[in-house]
Amino acid sequence: MKLDREALARDVRALPSLPTVVQELMMLVQKNEVQLDTITNTLSLDQALSVKVLHLANSPFYGLSGRVRSIRDAINILGMRQLSSLVIAAALTLQFEKLHGQSLHMNAFWRHSIGCATAARQLAKRTGLDEQAAFTAGLLHDVGRLVVDSHHPLEAAQAIAWAEASDTPHCDAEYMLLGIDHTELGSWVCRHWRFTSDVTDAIAGHHHPPPSGALTLIDIVHVADAITHALDLAEAPNEAVPGISSAAWARLGLQERELPALLASIESEFNDLYAVLKPAKEAP
User: Fold this and answer.
1) CATH at residue 204
2) Where does the sequence pass through the membrane (predicted)?
């Protein structure tokens, strides 16, 4: 069952690139000074994406219902970093819809991805890390599973079935049966889509955060993933909560008294965001 790594690399390189508008915007937001008209004109080149961004900006997630009528309004009210997050989320919604396999339940996959993005953003907010990068990393953390499922559905199905039957983490089952796991494959996708190294590293290491060192997005996504499973935001029939690294948990510095409010906030934001970002055509 071992998958050919060179063939997988070709599969990743063959994935549709992120829209040119998104790539340009990702570069623009890294600059210290960018003219507002430059951003507005760049995003207006993709009308469908602009509509999705405005829909999201006016969702209950941001509490701005009816106040954002143009991309210029979105920038003025939300700021460039927040707008960038909206654009990436909207674009990834469209990209994920193109990668539809046979083994993953796409509704559950998408719900978990959005839930992890929400949880990662909340954790980053509490710990002072980049909220938008955390959101993006959370949204992308399992994209490697989607690539295997869309290109090698039989092997993906066998890995999923073996993991559930043996009560083995999916990541371990993938590596043992397929010779690669979704974290490594996901990092390839992130490099193909030209995401920053902190996002790519978070995808690659979110199941195995380092035993020592400073807090990074790897810890954020690792804990966010576990929280999302614990809340069963995916509504999956065989939900299992992965273990949490004690080192990663310690680096976050969360107190037990904070958890009820944190979990409630994640659930509330997830419901608002999912209503806007859910795939246009949900799988049965």
Assistant:
1) 1.10.3210.10
2) none
| Structure confidence by residue, pLDDT tens digits, 11-68 | 898 887 777 777 777 777 666 666 777 778 877 777 877 887 787 778 777 777 778 8
Q: What is the pLDDT of residues 192-203, one digit of tens each?
A: 988 889 999 999
Of 74, 98, 122, which marks where a domain is finished?
Answer: 98
Residues 107 and 130 placed together within one structural domain of the fold: yes
CB environment 136-167: b (16+ within 10 A), e (fewer):
bbbbbbbbbbbbbbbbbeebbebbbebbeeee
**Cα gap 40→56, rounded to integer Å:** 16
What are the tokens at 190? 């992130």
Tokens in use for 94?
């469209």
Instruction: Look at residue 115 and tell me if it is in a domain.
Output: yes
Nearest to 223 by CA among 257, 187, 247: 247
How many C-beta atoms surround the C-beta of residue 280 within 10 A?
Answer: 7
Amino acid (one-letter) located at 14 = A
Q: Which amino acid is at 248?
A: A
Q: What Cα–Cα distance (Å) separates residue 21 from each residue in 90, 136, 141, 156, 165?
A: 12, 17, 23, 33, 44
Residues 43 and 108 in one domain: no
Do 202 and 65 have their domain in common? no
- pTM (2 decimals)? 0.86
User: Which domain covers residue 68, as residue numbers?
Assistant: 15-98
- Of 98, 129, 151, the last residue of a domain is 98
Q: Which residue has the tokens 């995003």?
A: 43
The H or E element spanning position 150 is helix 143-151
